Amino acid sequence: MNQQQPNSVATQSENFDLARQALSQAKSVLNNAIGAVRDRVYVSGRADEVLLHNAQQDCYDLAMLSADVWSAQCLVEFAETQSRSSLVCQLTWKFVAEKARGVMAAQFAGASTLERSRETFDSLAARPALQQFLDEHGVRDSYADLGRLLSETEVKELPSGLTEEKALIADTFRRFAEEVVAPLAGVIHREDRDIPDEIIQSAARMGCFGTCIPERFGGLQPDEQPDSLGMIVVTEELSRGSLGAAGSLITRPEIAARALLAGGTESQKSGWLPQLAAGEKLCAISITEPNTGSDVAAVSLRATPTEGGWLLNGAKTWCTFAGKSGVLVVLGRTNPDASSGYRGLSLFLVEKPAYSGHEFTFSPSGGGSLSGKAISTLGYRGMHSYDLFFEDFFVPAENLIGEAKGEGKGFYYTMAGFSGGRIQTAARANGVMQAAYEQALRYANEREVFGAPIAALQITRIKLARMLATITASRQFSYSVARMMDQGEGQMEASLVKLFACRAAEWVTREAMQIHGGMGYAEETAVSRYFVDARVLSIFEGTEEVLATRVVARELLERGGL
Predict the structure, then answer these.
(1) More confident site: 174 or 419
(2) Which of 129, 152, 161, 423 has a CA that sits 20 to 30 A from residue 491's CA?
C-alpha cells in the first residue's frame, strides 16, 4: 500500500491495513520484551524457578499486555467480516489504536523489559500514515461521536458473527434469561437465597446441563466434534440474566465431564455423564483448600485406602454449589508423601444428598461425615460457596475417577476440566458486561442532569463507546479460543482470554455503576449486583496473578513470543 500523506483520509481497506500494522508493531515490542525476560530467567535452556520468581511483575505485565493485543487482533479479524457495518469498523480501529498506544505507553512507564523495544515505536516517525492512524483513532475523544450514535439509536450490541444455528441458540437462552432468571435475580442476591428449583428445572428441560457432554452420553455435544462455541454462547446468555443464579450452571458439569472424559472408565462415563447431562445429578468441584489456594499441587486432603474404597479426611473451601449438588468432584492426596506433589493426587466422585440452605451435615452408610457451611460473600450469590470438612468419609473404590488406573492422575484430570472452565469464565464475564452496558445505555438516555440526558455528555458517550468496543472484542476473543479448543489447542489461550475478559468485566461494570451515579450504589439497582459479581471473576478458576505468571507468561517464554 502506498503511504498516505499526513491529514489525508484513509479508506476502509487502508484503515484495516494500518490496524494490522499497529498490532504488528505492538507484537514486535512484546516479543522483544518476552525475549528480554527469557534471557534473564532461562539457564541452560530451562526456566530457573528462582529467577522466574524474581521476574513476577514483568511476567504479569507481559501477560496482561499480550491479552490486550490478542483481543484486538480477534476484533480486527471479526470486523473484516462485517465490513458493511461502519460502526463495527470504527469501533474496531479505535480499540486497536487504544491497545497499541497502551503498549507504547508501557515502554515509557518504567517497564524495564520493554526498554529495548523503544526503537520499534520510535520508527513511527518515518511512517506518517501509521502515526496518523494512531493519532486519529487512539485518543479518547475519537469515541465521542460513536457514543452519541450508540445512545441516539440505542445500539445494545454489535453483530455477533454467529451462524444461524448458534444465533438461534443464543436467542433461545436469552429469552430464558430475560423471562425466567432476571425477574428472580435481584431477590436472590439481596436475600442471599438458593437458586430456585424453577430455574434449575427449566434449565434442565432446555438441555442446559448437556451442552458440555457428548450426544452418546445424553448430551448436546456432537460425538464427532466438540462444540465449545455453542457451550459458551449459552453461558454468556445465562450470565446476562444473573451470574450467581444461572451463569455458572454449566461450568461445574463441564469441568466434571471433561475430567471423566479424560480419565474415567467406560462404566464411569456411561453411568455419570447421562445423569449430569439431564440435570439429575447437580455437581460441584472441590479442589481448593484453606492453606493452598491456587497451588493445586499442594492439596493435602488425605485419601487413605480402606476395604472397598477410600476414607477422606481434611478440609476444602470455596466449593461452589456444594449444598444443592448430588455429587462433588474432590481432589485428594492418595500418596501420603508430600514430596510427590501433583503426582500424588487423585480425583474422586463423592455422592451426597442435595441440601437447601446454607449449612448441611451428611453421614453416609459407609461411615464418617461430611459437613458444609456457606461462606458469606460480597456477590455471586445463589449457588453459595462452601467450606467443607471430611471426617473418615467413605468413598467406594469405583468412585475414584479411572479407578485403579486413575490413582495419582487426579491433577491431570483436574487441569483437563479447568481449561474449559476458564473459557466458560470468559463467557460469564461477557454476559455480565453485556447486561451492565445495556442498563447503562438505558439509564444514560433516561436520566437528565442540567436539563439534558446524561447521554448527551461527552464523557458518557466516550464511556459507552469504549464499553461496547471492549465487550465485542472480549466476545470475539472468546469465540476464537473456543474454536481453537475444539481443534485440541488453545490451553494457554483459554487462560489469556480469561485474563482479558475478567479484567474487562470489572472495568465495564464500574463504568456502568458510574453512569448511574448514586443509584448505582443502591442494592435495588441491577448494576450494583453486576459490579460485585464481576469482582469474583478474576479470582476463581485460577486467580489473575497465578494465571498471568504461572500459566500464560511461562508459555510465552517457552514459545519465545506471541
Answers:
(1) 174
(2) 161
Greatest pairwise CA separation for the chain in angstroms: 82
pLDDT classification of 541: cutoffs 50, 70, 90:
confident
Question: Are 294 and 402 in the same domain?
Answer: yes
Q: Considering the domain boundaries, does residue 415 fall inside one? A: no
Mean pLDDT to the nearest integer, 516-535? 96
For residue 211 the three cell numbers come to 451442552
Helices first, then strands: H and E counts in the chain: 19, 12
Contacts of 127 (CB under 8 A, 6+ apart): 3, 21
pLDDT at site 119:
55
Cell numbers for 421: 472452565
| Cα–Cα dist 454/462, whole Å | 12
Query: What's the CA gap between 309 and 136, in Å, rounded?
Result: 67
Enter the pTM of the model: 0.92
How confident is the model over 126-145, as a mean pLDDT?
78
All three cell numbers of 359, joined, read: 449449612
Domain that holds residue 365: 283-410
- Report d(CA 329, CA 331) in Å as an integer: 7
Q: Is 154 in the active site? A: no
CA 59 – CA 552 distance, rounded (Å)? 8
My answer on whether 290 and 405 are in the same domain is yes
Q: Which residue has the higher pLDDT, 479 or 416?
A: 479
* Residue 306 neighbours by CB distance under 10 Å: 14
Lowest mean pLDDT among 22-26, 47-51, 415-419, 544-548: 415-419
Buried b (16+ CB within 10 A) or exposed e, 445-459: beeeeeeebbbbbee
Residue among 289, 541, 555, 558 flagged as catalytic: 541
Contact between 541 and 235 (Cβ < 8 Å): no
304 and 250 part of one domain: no
Which residue, of 138, 155, 188, is where some domain finishes?
138
Residues 301 and 325 in one domain: yes
What is the structure's pLDDT at 379? Answer: 92
Question: Are 257 and 294 in a shared domain?
Answer: no
Nearest Cα to Cα of residue 296 among 415, 426, 420, 407: 415
CA 194 to chain centre: 23
Candidates 100, 162, 102, 159; CA nearest to 134 is 100
Mean pLDDT of 309-327: 96
Task: Count structural domains, the chain.
Answer: 4
Examine the fold and report which residue of 228, 261, 278 is the final residue of a domain before the chain moves on. 278
- The reported pLDDT for the residue numbered 107 is 67
